[in-house]
Fold Extracellular serine-rich.
Amino acid sequence: MHCPSVAVLAVLAAGASAATHKVEMGEGGLTFKPDSLKAAKGDTVEFHFDSLHSVVAGDFKKPCEPAANGGFYSGDLPDGKKTTFTITINNTDPIFYYCGVEAHCQGGMVGVINQADDTVADYKSAAEKTDKTTNPKSVFGGSVGDGSSSSSSTTTKGSSSATTTEASAASDTESSTNTASAAATSSTGNVAGHLTGPVAGVSFLALVFGGLLAY
């Protein structure tokens, strides 16, 4: 009876455990802050644009150029109220990225997710030696937003759902206990009812027999 509740709790817990990592762009110069972070599969990375920049997934061996396979591109932001670009991490392979605005990549505006043997420092050093920046033709690989989303609201919602589910499960248990108690009471009453007839009969015969002896 409680197996479905356990399964729901497991799914909710998995959802609640996914983290959102925030990266500030252009805060105090040509920078991503932090420029290196660790993210698990299922996590999201939310890039916040403080001034005109873009974020493009690249390859370590070809700095300031889009990744040959997969990747993402935000386009130049901010655009009106659109100030964030969010991607979902599908695996824990290293992801190097750069700002696609002209000369920003060469100026050191690069970063990495899940750094391994190849470091962001080496990527930055190689980027400084390039003479051009290349961008994809259109935005892809993520969602553009207004910056109103947050990891805390997602986590709180998940925790609330889990609490509600646990309360429901507890209610089911209480209901089952009450039902069992009622059934036990009813059963006891029935047994008492069945015994009343024979006991009454025996008492009547005893009175009659006693009367005859007295007579």
In short: The first strand starts at residue 20 and ends at 25. The chain has three helices and ten strands.
